[in-house]
Amino acid sequence: MKKFEVQEEFLLEGQPFKIISGAIHYFRILPEDWYHSLFNLKALGFNTVETYIPWNIHEPKEGQFDFSGRYDIKKFVEVAESLDLYVILRPSPYICAEWEFGGLPAWLLTYKEMRIRSSDPHFMEKVESFYEKLFEILTPLQIDQGGPVLMMQVENEYGSYGEDKDYLKFLYDLMIDLGVTVPIFTSDGPWKATQEAGTLLEENLLTTGNFGSRSKENFEDLKSFQEEHGKKWPLMVMEFWDGWFNRWGEAIVRRDGNDLAEDVKEALEIGSINLYMFHGGTNFGFMNGCSARGEIDLHQITSYDYDAPLNEQGNPTEKYYALQKMMKEMFPEIKTKEPLIKDSMEVQNIPLQEKVSLFSIVDDIADKKTSRYPQSMEELGQEYGYVLYRTKIKKDSKEETYRVIDGRDRLQFYVNEEKIATQYQTEIGEKINVAQEKELNQIDILVENMGRVNYGHKLLADTQNKGIRTGIMSDLHFMLDWEQFSIDFSDPLSINYKEKWIENTPSFYRYTFEIDEVKDTFINMEKFGKGIVLINGFNIGRFWEIGPTLSLYISKALLSKGENEIVIFETEGTWAETISLEKEPKYKKMEEK
Fold this sequence. Notes:
- One of its GO terms (biological process) is carbohydrate metabolic process.
- By secondary structure, the chain is an alpha+beta fold.
- It is built from ten helices and 31 strands.
- The strands form six sheets. The protein has an eight-stranded parallel β-barrel with strand order 4-5-6-7-8-9-10-11, surrounded by five helices. The protein has an eight-stranded antiparallel beta sheet with strand order 28-27-30-25-14-31-26-29. Strands 15-24-16-21-18-19 form a six-stranded antiparallel beta sheet, with helices on one face.
- Strand 10, helix 8 (257-270) and strand 11 (272-279) form a beta-alpha-beta unit.
């Protein structure tokens, strides 16, 4: 058993210890790729890996827990330990991390009166239920119990959200009661206001800072706050931002590698560091987060490349080699190795095998519920994906006006299976004028949940309830009697491609290809509009023609020697007879930041 302490310095077995850490999120990388990324962290000379733990993947439905496969946090920690890496865990109910709803499970939204991230007894009850399961796994991994875990975090950047000390105290006491014996810390912006609001000094919790440059200035702010409260702690930047995340329709954010290396060196001369991110990975499925800006929610892309030292694939970038040079100069005694590099492959012109319209098969593949008025996604018991709302209405006049009241996030409006309008966010609620010839007309509205906000006051806003939340109006009255089809892709779909394909409707496109050798690859989506891609049944995430990315990463772990299947669910009616796999990611030409 080893001992890790927070004194005036970090002490490991009584000796001063500088934490040189990098963030790798096990939930954004497939288990088959964990070793590759962790090896490359160790090869650089780093000694620690840090990861968040998102509540929503481990308790996807209330009372149903999953710590297996992709979500086996214990296995991830053990792989790190096998490479002589220490581990920092951040098991907060809320993680931010550009992750869907900041890691909070969407089913919390069904409790209308609950106030999340607060001392609301109802919220704390839900947290406690999750923590009881989580810490059964985490506590045996602590360094003083023979594992590699050095420290754990309470909450996350709480000083940028609230100052409910009763809530923080509840989380701290709960962690102690559940067996946490390693040091517990908080992380916030380094300035006084956030540190004051987000810390729990009476429990002697280490305070750390989050920033990405001006280390001397930011560490001085953190040190001044600590000294003001009579503390003389080691200085650590828990998130040193080495890149940034990206959003649909915006240019990719880049940062010069040599500039980063100089800033990291400055931080290491003063204290300890955790690079955020070291390997970003991928927001598989529907797990991308969303930034909030006024009335607009800016949804983030599938790739979480982050312009990190390892790219989305896990291979070293120019930043990695700039850091490698700096590490060798600054710490010549530290052992380093050459990084692992994965190969990529290309498969050109994979032909379309079959296609079918969603409207032709929706009864067979979706969970159907009926109600007088349309229900939100959460009311339907659905967390992610799409809902198709359907009703039939008699013609009142030759031209009818429809309005969708209070919907999120993006919808397509169809009359008799013909697309009439697409609306996104603030456009929703605008008039949709339709010339109707038939006496009885079928209305279909496909609504996509594009991801909930992961930061700020909008975590409490009703905008995080998705789907249609109030109703649909014809002329000046609300329409009744709706069928609602939930399509979340959580279970394998049995798609009957013998049914009808209808041009310009949401549809499934199936492609197959054979390979003799399995390698990583990138699927080129530049000929498609918007939707998701399933590789051998696994949802690798969203694509959208507005960019900045026009491809999706496919780990070799998702592929098999022999035949493989690609299924594309495309919602705009933009598709191609062939599709290609390429060695490098594809980007839309935009002005880079």
